Amino acid sequence: MVSVRGAWALFGAFLLFWLVLEMVNHGGGTILLGIVGVFAPDLTLFIGPPGEHEPGQLTRRRVPSYNLVHRPIAPVLWLVVCVVLPDPPGTALFTLGLAWLLHISLDRALGYGLRTADGWQR
Asked: What is the pLDDT of residues 56-84, one digit of tens each?
């Protein structure tokens, strides 16, 4: 039986393949947005003023933005909207959504998830 983390890892491998395929097929801005989409969700770790926290804990002010961009529904909705957009922006933005979802799936596969209100891993 495949564990939840294993399922996220398989989904991540599928998304990585699809992301690279999109980047190779369309080139240009899709490559840049694909790379940005993989790393951008973790920029929320730096949003908001720093506060008191222990190692491994996120400050309370940073938790809402972190949790918002680390929920899979956000990039899925993004992908749905991008499907109806005309090209060229639709394809590049779709690639950004794939990369964003890849980031979330890799986080889940590695055991990182949403944070509690006081900043600890759930």
From this structure: 888 888 899 999 999 999 999 999 999 99
Between CA 114 and CA 34 the distance in angstroms is 23
How far apart CA 88 and CA 110 sit, in angstroms, is 34
How many CB atoms neighbour CB 6 within 10 A?
Answer: 11
DSSP letter at 49?
Answer: -
- With a threshold of 0.70, does the pTM exceed it? yes
What Rg value do the Cα atoms of the chain yield, rounded? Answer: 16
Phi-psi region of 111 (alpha: psi -120 to 50; beta: other; left: phi over 0): left
pLDDT digits (tens, 9 = 90+) for 83-101: 998 887 889 999 999 999 9
Which structural domain range is residue 91 located in? Answer: 4-109
In a domain, 24, yes or no: yes
Q: Which two tokens stand for residue 107?
A: 């986080």
